[in-house]
Amino acid sequence: ANLVPFLREVCEQFQPVEGKRIRISYFASSDDIDVVFDEQQLRIAIEQLLANSVKFAPNDSRAKIFVDAIQDKAVIRIADKGVGIPDEVMPYVFEPFNGDEAENLKLYEVNEIVTAHGGTIRAENNRGGGTIFIIELPLEKEVEIEEAVVMEDDE
After folding, report:
1. For residue 101, what pLDDT is reported?
2. How far apart are CA 154 and CA 106, in angstroms?
3. Which site in 46, 58, 112, 121 is 20 to 30 Å from 105, CA atoms measured?
């Protein structure tokens, strides 16, 4: 299925935490990036990452989603201008029990969803502040089915 309109819809329908003034911007490098995905599960993952971005971002800032096709992968980047993730926590951010267990369980669930789709996820601190979550999912491979040539006997 095409990831581009799906992600656009998720961004448009996302409701930030009440009282937070955060804009969600969406950018796609192409109109058509095909990936095999479960809409309900991937929606949960993207909304959780957006909620995480909004929770830790200052008011009047922006969270951004970029989607791109690079080689044989769809790459989704969700970036914010929040406080970032402490360096000592970064290697364990997708573990189920580390520090803030509620937050870690949510990120653990996101990791499980992405992994179930044959993908990977990682987090990096943005040099300008904030965090970038990077999801890589395999592109849907085009399968060409050639028609068999059937020879008919004239007999």
Report:
1. 55
2. 67
3. 58
